[in-house]
């Protein structure tokens, strides 16, 4: 801005050599006005810098553009989040409520009944010649876990709590089973346990486990998956389960116990007639009366060490016929010697092996 010097009125009569052309005087009023204008301009300029003028774009100062520090990829966790930036996960959602559903005339909770019918449908597609009835799967589910603990499952079919059989560690009359899954399925890294509502041993689940609900996982604690797995076990070997003899053989392969077979088939007949299952007797796999156990496939059925609460009639022992006639020296009034009843020998016991078909 160029400033043009103009003399003041009182300087018009003075000669030029007496005037100071380099520092023109400014009246006091003009100086005060300029000072006030400068003070007022400061906030306006500050606002313009802060918010920008219309049609302009703020450009940060070069010193404010600091390059980010390089990230050490090796310091990141598996999730790709730096350890220092980790924050606790959100509170997990509340458990899905049980979805037992209405109980029909058979006494089976609706959600579990859906799983049994799903197994019949699945095997009807994959093994139609097997003719698997849902009533047979349901009968096994009744014996093994009382239909997943009375229908204690979520809406997606998973049991609200894991169902596990007794530890098969050789105590309490149970067999000893070496661990085969490092506890991945049954939660016990020491020995194997039967797991899930259909009570599969880890080795059997590896063979017959199935994804019954199409969620991409074969879950032994899911009633849909376990029911289809049970159907696959029953249909192994290609039986026709509409034949009574083949049906009994398939159940025996599931749990090698004649008492178990009779129990399952009685319940299956009731379900087929639309009636509730009969009351269950003492667990057929209990080796010691009073010790609760859960029968499982692959045969946890063991001959009881002592008679059960409701023993079956003992086989009659034939009395050997006398080889000679009684001598006359025996008094006629003497009572005959009572026959000796012996305990069943191992040959008299059920020769069934302990474990079902692999």
Automatic annotation (TrEMBL):
<dbReference type="GO" id="GO:0008933">
    <property type="term" value="F:peptidoglycan lytic transglycosylase activity"/>
</dbReference>
<protein>
    <submittedName>
        <fullName>Membrane-bound lytic murein transglycosylase B</fullName>
    </submittedName>
</protein>
<feature type="compositionally biased region" description="Low complexity">
    <location>
        <begin position="315"/>
        <end position="335"/>
    </location>
</feature>
<feature type="compositionally biased region" description="Pro residues">
    <location>
        <begin position="305"/>
        <end position="314"/>
    </location>
</feature>
<dbReference type="GO" id="GO:0009253">
    <property type="term" value="P:peptidoglycan catabolic process"/>
</dbReference>
<feature type="region of interest" description="Disordered">
    <location>
        <begin position="286"/>
        <end position="358"/>
    </location>
</feature>
<dbReference type="Pfam" id="PF13406">
    <property type="entry name" value="SLT_2"/>
</dbReference>
<feature type="compositionally biased region" description="Low complexity">
    <location>
        <begin position="286"/>
        <end position="304"/>
    </location>
</feature>
<dbReference type="InterPro" id="IPR031304">
    <property type="entry name" value="SLT_2"/>
</dbReference>
<feature type="compositionally biased region" description="Basic and acidic residues">
    <location>
        <begin position="8"/>
        <end position="17"/>
    </location>
</feature>
<dbReference type="InterPro" id="IPR043426">
    <property type="entry name" value="MltB-like"/>
</dbReference>
<dbReference type="InterPro" id="IPR023346">
    <property type="entry name" value="Lysozyme-like_dom_sf"/>
</dbReference>
<feature type="domain" description="Transglycosylase SLT">
    <location>
        <begin position="194"/>
        <end position="230"/>
    </location>
</feature>
<feature type="region of interest" description="Disordered">
    <location>
        <begin position="1"/>
        <end position="26"/>
    </location>
</feature>
